[in-house]
Amino acid sequence: MRITRRLVTKVTVTLHAITAVTMHVIRTFPVHVITVVAWVTTRVLMAVRVGVIACHTAYRGTASRLQLLP
Predict the structure, then answer these.
(1) Where does the sequence pass through the membrane (predicted)?
(2) Sequence-separated (6 or more) residues with CB below 8 Å from residue 69
(3) pTM, whole model, 2 decimals?
């Protein structure tokens, strides 16, 4: 029972800390900045995904031409 209470207390304190930091960041930076950062992050991740797919496709094409794949 004690371990459960300690765990609940730690989780509660952690959640409060995360909430406080998040609210501070939201107050510090304007919504516009957060939106721009989110947009840029999304675009970068999409570009990386396209690059990975292209490399994988090119590798498969080369491998099958060289008869490396069954």
Answers:
(1) 7-26, 32-59
(2) 60, 63
(3) 0.45
